[in-house]
């Protein structure tokens, strides 16, 4: 009998409180729901494995000692602080146990993403049962003593996190901040044709925006060259304190929704393990067949599973007279007063003994052979998959020589180039040379950001309808564009953590949308630095174009350089920020970032024409130094400068150059030094960042005592924060963005924020001792020039030609 | 004949390129699709109004002069920079024109949210046609000269933004960053039973996470006491450069999806205005009836509309031989080279004349009476709705006296209280006293954040299934919990901007999820400060609990105090940050924030027990000062201190107090001053922030020259940034969070980041001149104490009782 999985159990049967069945009543009779799977022994083994995983999870949450319940539980065996999440754990264990069977039977390569990753005890339990935990952490042996340590270390000082974390073998997904599991799953599946990514999505997580958007990732999956994602929507009914939306909408609505997302949903619902094992096994066989059909072009849709089980399944049914199993009360620790309340202690012991540990572990505490018979071998174990430790699979990119894309610069500052357009040619050839291991992500802005050259060799990934009028769309495209920064980020994270490479190009202001995701990824990288077995992965590279200073026309809402501040707050060992001022420096920085490992690299570079400042050779030297004196713009050679004009970012650099030219024209006796900063982290001392410049070097360039006028791309406070330990920090006067924005022209935008050439000249006059008197007329002239420039924009709607077309004067 | 709206046009007819119909062919014959709407004249007037709005939109994008095309277009009439978004505009105009008819006919109160708000010319055109633009901006008269100014100012220096913006009458929704329209719409509808919020959702925006999650907002809407939202999903097929997902999935999938979200979808699809007017009018009549049924309990679902029209509808069909109408090429400016290319100029003139302006405007440029006949009157005009200028409707909250919730503090620092639990009682009574104008939002954490007292008087809003086991759920609940920070934020913004009050409580780390939304709201508030007709609205209040220092057990992913850095980057005039260290200061701050207007207030306060430090009277004085000396903890009365121990945040304050006690015990001759900072903005100079403390006062408290050890809740660089202009800033040594986190105990968490009492004592010894020698033994003792404390946590899993139970010594 093949039942209709989709409506296998009617909704009304599923309402909590559930009948409490099974564990008190001796060995479960395994009732097979279908005839296709007739191996009763196998399901009994799956069930035993599940019991073992549940037992190990409860033990992690509660026990300091007495792991096998060799003696009656006493308060001294219980942890003083009870931490962890039981509610989702039995469901996670159920999925893992069943997936193991199909992996072993089919030899299917698979990884497991636990969306409800706060159920950390589950992932740890599987790794221990599969042996990979002991392989990774030899002190945690697969015996009673190892089990004791395993229990004790969980969420214990000096131990392991309570969530699925970088420390957890087999995971690419942290279980703290919810919403990203399905995007990570698709990222892992791209270009992994033999891989199935099983992704458990909690019904709490399913309420988040990023997850809600992620369902549509199937429109970007190429069945013929990508792997498959198997979403398992786990409806256990409750979040921390509330019911979940998807568990409480009518089942026809739920099925409509999932079909509307483009999936073929299968429902597995119930609470009696005896029934549920058969249903799940049968369903998994069916969906794996459907995935094969999908990949062979015989089916149009990926299947998915809706798993409806009680929250805290098999846990305490009632505590202190209130229902717990099947309710929000089992979200974290169902029995909270175990140490002090003998009744709770007794309930805990009853609960743990209900899994019959004596049948699951031998006298030495080793898992008995029977429960391991459905566990796959070697790298097929999901807790030991090399895909989940992507650095193991990482191959370096085949990179063309970036110098071959160089812009010729016969005279600095006299011709202009669109830097991102040049980088686009380099990226085009990176894509061509790495057809299976590099992807370019962006929220519909790759063309707008002028990286269009990539479309000479590839297309945008698109697996929905394509019309004759469309351009550059194909299922196998290497450019991934969706109007969701969350998806771009999530896909790329999943792709990188499984051992591939990529770059995310984005409007600068809107990268704030993924601040929280960046934070979590940076924390992941930071944590992996301390975990020897985690092999380095490719860096997460951001290219922020369409930046604050060129959003004059889009106005205030598009102007925000604050992502840099978010980035710099994270651990210095994982974050890098680059502000290349022209095309050749962008090429050099871009090449460097694509070669790097385990960093988050943020590159801010404009798409609008900027002056070509450095020959390729100079650009390489300048980027290697990270910051340096621009000799041709300075007139202090062999002398001490009177003032340092520093800059970081393309527009601020242009304005500094123009200010230097004005000063040199009008005050030729003034010794001006122009310093450009490409690598922002060079500004910090070496104690604060690995790229930090030693104080002596810093003082030599910025001087310990001369006025420094620093024209910065972002918020001024960032430069103060990076330099506040420097000798001359009191002399550093920073100009930058200060939330003065409107719809205007490029130069007027600079003037609104006082980063313009005229204001910089006035800054210098105000700060160089004695100059205020000497240059009083010049100061007034500058002020007049600003007024004139502003009046011109108001009258004509554009900047004056002198400003728009300004180049470095050749005779200087 | 009542047609089946849902499948009124078959999908295959809708594929671009569309047949180009209508505007070249003389007046459109109005074909009515149904018999229900038989007033042909009315639809002709709607059509004329639509033509006028389209004409005004094109004029804004292109024209400097010659607004009525009184003479042939010349290059001098054209703006030098062509900016703006045409693609979405005719669709926005179409909706607005048709909504006007039903508003006028039914007297229905309605506001309009333009999700594709980059189509700014549309909203401005309607406001001008409806007369509200001239009422708001008298210089922009409703005649030819006014029209000329209207055109010229659009996206012109000194003019108005190109998106729907705070400057636009009738809007509560900025059109820059996409994804929030539907959440804003629901926020506006809550507690507005007579209001219908029409919300146009672009198919680009529909790909974002926040929008995808927002559809489920209908589970939180109470038909009997809330207003209605009418989502209009506008499928014009393309984003900037790509097709959109929802326009390219099979229509059955689309309908499944929308039904799965719980709506009753109606499709209006086509490109022939003659047909489309009838379809839209009939559909709107039907959905308004369905909304009435929904609100009367006769129907279970809200209706919605899917509007499929060509992108850039009625714009140039082809330019330079390439299709433009119906493709992504009409996203922004369909004719880009108008000034230089006579063919483009001719096309523009042909395009504009196709709307037959001579029929729409009289010789003086005034809209003819006929096209205004479907425009509603007075405040029913969507561009003049007081709901869209919420300050007009704002009533102050009825606030209980917060002093009545005070904790008794007979001796400071000796008893503990959970501050948020106390605030919960105050909020309970705020909710009770303001049953229709205050809501509490949170991502499922109101109980977890210990605000549970609110459930004594209200429930969680829930309009899906409720089971007997559930608690505190009801359709009319005032607490809104959904596992989406985006929805909490979006709903609250919509609620506030329509003149109501609220508070968003959230885990501190995960508030980063809405960084970008906060940025946009802060920019909105900043912009409205310069717009006289925008009346002040209630502040957006964040309560960040479950903060970084008490996420020791949840580990690294839950530890992030960086939202403060994001906040402080925004305009000083709109942001406020408070770190009350105990229950009474939290009450005082909470009351203050609920009374304030036009700010974003961020309150960071713990839910764990903290020492009671201030009596209510002292708390009020301390919060009013914003920062001050804690007299009882200091021993420098009448003398100059040797060291200042400063603190901000509850845990850092506790550690500073303990450090002060240690210093006073072991080094009684040392003069220690303890300073607590509640209002972080007091640290800035008055030139930087309105709350800034004058330098003289600051120097008096922090001293100009003594060492200051500042123990801070967040990242240390923030304090350096705020104080770098202060006299003694080189002497300020800041301790704070430095991304050293793991799963541990509270005190070990402090030790990991060196904000603990022992480290602070060592800091003081290292910094007070001469003390290093004198206190060498004490320094070593402190170091030993730390090692002991850490060893204890590793052995026992919790902090030592001396640390856990520490109170201020009574004999000091």
UniProtKB/TrEMBL annotation, chains A, B:
Looking at the record, the residues that make up the Xylulose 5-phosphate/Fructose 6-phosphate phosphoketolase N-terminal domain are 41-392
Is-annotated flag, keyword 4Fe-4S?
no
**SUPFAM superfamilies associated with the record:** Thiamin diphosphate-binding fold (THDP-binding) (SSF52518)
Q: Tell me the domain of life.
A: Bacteria
Which GO terms label this protein's molecular function in UniProt?
aldehyde-lyase activity; magnesium ion binding
| Enzyme Commission number(s) | 4.1.2.-
- Identify the cofactor(s): thiamine diphosphate
Q: From its record, what is one biological process in GO terms?
A: carbohydrate metabolic process
> What are the Xylulose 5-phosphate/Fructose 6-phosphate phosphoketolase C-terminal domain coordinates in residue numbering?
607-808
Does the UniProt entry include the keyword Amino-acid biosynthesis?
no
Q: Check the record and name the Pfam families matching this protein.
A: XFP, XFP_C, XFP_N
Query: Which keywords has UniProt assigned to this entry?
Result: Lyase, Thiamine pyrophosphate
Family statement: Belongs to the XFP family.
HAMAP family cross-referenced by the UniProt entry = Phosphoketolase
Q: Specify the protein name.
A: Probable phosphoketolase
